[in-house]
Design the sequence.
């Protein structure tokens, strides 16, 4: 598989290492200078990890050239529906995930199931905490938003999420913390007057995210349409 990397920071370099380990070929890397479309056309698929403000244009460039593209950049989802429409108009392929880690995607399924169970136990409230490195620009994380939306969808007494400590009973409070050298920790806690029930995922390195992105790219090659990680992992 020939791959173009859009974004060549720490994550891009980790993805490149995983691609090489899996015997794929990186045919182009693009950084702050933007995308050279002639080089992009050499690729079977592109993997995009950049900054929120540049994502949509990067995706649009891939779609115009009918290059399937995987992105894990968060903080841009106000334009997600527009990206889906553009992908479909150009008969290209697109896969976005707030988190590519296999462990996190299993965690998503556990989160949904626990929320369904907790519907019957109204004496428990729910709150969330996410911790990331200080270079992460968006807060809460895309993964935290996904987790919160899953709880809202499956726990009938919740209607939304908030970063504000003062909030209504229908909202889930997300505590977003930024600390040096943290790859990503997400905690969902159901608390009552007598006990707490907690599920937690802790990333130990970038490798889990990078491997998931590569597996997603392998899945997306030669396809058209819009996909999610649950399609890749048969969840």
Sequence:
């Amino acid at each position: 598989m020939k791959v173009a990397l859009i974004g060549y920071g720490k994550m891009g370099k980790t993805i490149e290492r995983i691609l090489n380990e899996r015997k794929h070929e990186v045919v182009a890397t693009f950084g702050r200078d933007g995308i050279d479309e002639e080089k992009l056309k050499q690729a079977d698929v592109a993997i995009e990890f950049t900054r929120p403000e540049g994502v949509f244009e990067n995706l649009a460039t891939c779609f115009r050239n009918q290059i399937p593209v995987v992105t894990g950049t968060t903080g841009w989802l106000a334009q997600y529906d527009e990206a889906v429409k553009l992908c479909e108009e150009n008969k290209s392929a697109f896969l976005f995930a707030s988190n590519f880690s296999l462990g996190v995607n299993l965690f998503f399924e556990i989160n949904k199931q626990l929320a369904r169970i907790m519907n019957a136990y109204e004496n428990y409230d729910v709150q969330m905490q996410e911790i990331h490195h200080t270079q992460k620009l968006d807060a809460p994380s895309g993964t935290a938003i996904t987790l919160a939306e899953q709880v809202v969808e499956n726990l009938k007494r919740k209607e939304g999420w908030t970063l504000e400590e003062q909030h209504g009973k229908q909202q889930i409070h997300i505590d977003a913390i930024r600390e040096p050298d943290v790859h990503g920790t997400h905690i969902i806690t159901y608390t009552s007057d007598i006990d707490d029930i907690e599920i937690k995922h802790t990333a130990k390195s970038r490798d889990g995210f990078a491997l998931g992105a590569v597996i997603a790219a392998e899945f997306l090659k030669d396809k058209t349409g819009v996909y999610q990680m649950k399609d890749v992992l048969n969840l």
